[in-house]
């Protein structure tokens, strides 16, 4: 299938590794010109070299930290300077530290709210006028399956990510007439460094081995395994495509059937 995004300009947040990097690669392979951003200049530069070596879409990068109060200004300027505008925005952030509801403090809530919610919304609002003017845009926000089924010991994530779900659904209705789609993509257990970290935390808390934790988690997934970054990224690329122009206001799961809710 031709996704119809050759030459489209895409920004992928938190794309130095993991899901963000996978999405950037998938978009570039469809011919999009991609701006990667994150906190590791070395990884970002290496990622761009690999993407550009494939000779399909072009990749560039910028150092940007969601914890920085100048994040929105830095990234929006880079979009103008390096891409000349934007067609596709992939909102992606790191997850907060594990913990229970009782572990949450006002300071931790505020810190993660700024980096995971407020700056995502503010950046999107900053970049929206250009999409409206051209009558085409794709906004995809990567969240977590915890939005629909809270994950044990991830109280902060379970609290903050649903705020993005409410915002995304509201925005979708507001901008659909401008040719802009707004969706959320919810990963389940995808094999990334983040998942490995969470499995290690679970192993230490339970006194079980890492192998036991991984086996137990995969047994609860109908597909019987962890997902691959490439599978998740392919789903993201479709949601950013021209053929997906009638898909908006939706939350798409990529979790191997793990979520039991309707």
From TrEMBL:
Its EC number is 1.1.1.100. InterPro entries: NAD(P)-bd_dom_sf, SDR, SDR_fam. CDD domains: BKR_like_SDR_like. Keywords: Oxidoreductase. GO terms for molecular function: 3-oxoacyl-[acyl-carrier-protein] reductase (NADPH) activity. It comes from the Bacteria. It is an enzyme of class 1 (oxidoreductase). Belongs to the short-chain dehydrogenases/reductases (SDR) family. This is 3-oxoacyl-[acyl-carrier protein] reductase.
